[in-house]
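Appendix B, record 7
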Amino acid sequence: MAQTTILGRIGQLIRANVNSMLDGAEDPEKMLDQLVRDFTNNIAEAEEAVAMTVGNLRLLEDDHREAKQAGVDWGDKASAAARKADETRSQGTGDADRYEELAKIAIRRQISFEGQVKTFETQITQQRELTEKLKDGLDKLRIKREELLSKRDELVGRAKMAAAQRQVQQAVREVSVMDPTSELNRFEDRIRREEAMARGMEEVASSSIEEEFAALDSGEDEAEVEARLAEIRQVPALQSGRTQ
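Structure tokens (predicted):
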């Protein structure tokens, strides 16, 4: 059960998409450090699991050899007891049945150990498969951790660059929504209005002066009119004096 659990965690770490995890992390550097710790811890557990499975494998192999040898030994004992039964039976002694029974007992033991040998062979096959999977996973974990460590600066740099790019894009969007040039435009409009007001006041002042001069000219013209009218009136009077 413990070996199955560690195999599952090994598989998750090996399949993990580190780049994707870093892209979505608030603090990529902390997440990367945590990933390194996870790899290191699981490597230690995997090494312990491999050592345990290898140890269990060696025990099974020892038990298999012992059971196999025991089966051979009990087979030899069965053969010896059967020969002894035949010898005593040919000699006419009464020990033949006892030796024959011993041969049967030895055969039963031989069969029992042969069954154990088959069981051990199945267990050994399973244990070897588990050991190979753990060793393979351990090797992949070690390789991936080394890659992670060697690319640590690169991955952190990429993550920081991505964050900076997001900030730049956000700033660009904010500038497009709130254009700072609009403030300059409003300031320029205010200056233009003030300039227009100054020109208007200048024109008003100029027109007032022109009106004064125009009034003065108008007074002079009126005096000329009165003078000429007086002259006209004097002409008939002079003519009338000459005729008398």
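Remarks on this record: The chain has a mean pLDDT of 80. The radius of gyration is 59 Å.
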